[in-house]
Amino acid sequence: LKFEQATQNLPKAKQEVVMDLTTSWERKGIQQGKKEGKKEGIREGEQRLLLKLLTHRYGSLTVEEEAQIGSLTEKQLEKLAQALLDFKSREELTGWLTKSASKKA
């Protein structure tokens, strides 16, 4: 509202320039938001899939294991997905999560 009031006092030509700039900023903000949302959606999808696969293979995960998986970066999630194929036991999963958590610190 304050923005509209401030621009009303400008000449028409300047109002149009200001509105074009505002519209441009809004478009950039929307594009950036979509890009970030898409990336976050992919990450969450990877997390859900990994949790399902791990639960299927090892049974219920502990709250701590789920939290550790939830805190992994996209790159770490990809590494865990690959490592999962080679795990022979739940202990290997626990060790992998502990190792990845210590790398963050």
Fold and architecture overview:
Helix content is 84%, strand content 0%. The protein contains five helices and no strands. The protein has helices at 2-8, 12-58, 63-70, 74-84, 90-104. α2 (12-58) runs parallel beside α4 (74-84). The mean pLDDT is 85.
Keywords for this structure?
5 helices, 105 residues, 84% helix, mainly alpha
Secondary-structure element sequence? HHHHH
Low-confidence stretches: none
| Outline | rod-shaped
Q: Compute the gyration radius: what is it? A: 24 Å
Q: Structural class, from secondary structure content?
A: mainly alpha
Distance between the termini: 46 Å
Q: State the helix count.
A: 5
Round the mean pLDDT to the nearest integer and report it.
85
Query: Can you summarize the main beta sheet?
Result: none
Strand content range: under 5%
The counted number of beta strands is 0
How much helix, percentage-wise, in residues? over 70%
Which helices and strands occur, and which strands form pairs?
Layout: H1 2-8, H2 12-58, H3 63-70, H4 74-84, H5 90-104
Helix pairs in contact: 2-4
Brief overview:
This protein has 105 residues and is mainly α. Helices cover 84% and strands 0% of the residues.
